[in-house]
Inverse folding.
């Protein structure tokens, strides 16, 4: 006789544990979905898109060190991504007018065009499994939670 399998429910887990599980599940599941769609449609891995997202949100060129501090990528990963994006003609690097040791990164016109297409793909993929399921106040609440967690990041270094 085969043992009957049971799936634990949220009700059996403390809220803090389920919140953590949900964060891990959502991050993994949604990132994989977006990565597959962006790679298939635009030959653009999600890590490249993340860098482009920050660049597109900035009206000015962004110092490379700021990209390293803003993204979830390490500084060396940011450098490799910027190299790859530059190789595809999607970003430019220019010497910083404020710091001779630093470079600033910005999207090229082609980078802006591809970002707009990729962002539409991302929104299309996330709609049915994320944004369309949530009310505007849910999205605002999640954004507030992420801001709080990110703001506290430096106060509690990793063990």
């Amino acid at each position: 006789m085969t043992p009957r399998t049971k799936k634990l429910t949220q009700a059996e887990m403390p809220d803090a544990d389920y919140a953590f599980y949900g964060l891990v599940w959502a991050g993994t599941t949604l990132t994989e979905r977006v990565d597959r769609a962006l790679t298939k449609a635009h030959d653009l891995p999600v890590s490249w898109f993340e860098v482009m997202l920050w660049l597109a949100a900035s009206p000015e060129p962004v110092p490379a060190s700021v990209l390293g501090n803003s993204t979830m990528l390490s500084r060396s990963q940011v450098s490799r991504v910027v190299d790859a994006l530059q190789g595809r003609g999607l970003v430019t690097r220019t010497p910083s007018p404020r710091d001779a040791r630093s470079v600033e990164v910005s999207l090229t016109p082609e980078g802006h065009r591809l970002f707009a297409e990729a962002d539409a793909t991302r929104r299309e993929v996330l709609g049915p499994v994320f944004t369309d399921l949530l009310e505007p106040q849910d999205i605002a609440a999640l954004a507030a939670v992420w801001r709080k967690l990110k703001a506290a990041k430096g106060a509690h270094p990793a063990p």
Remarks:
- The chain has six helices and three strands.
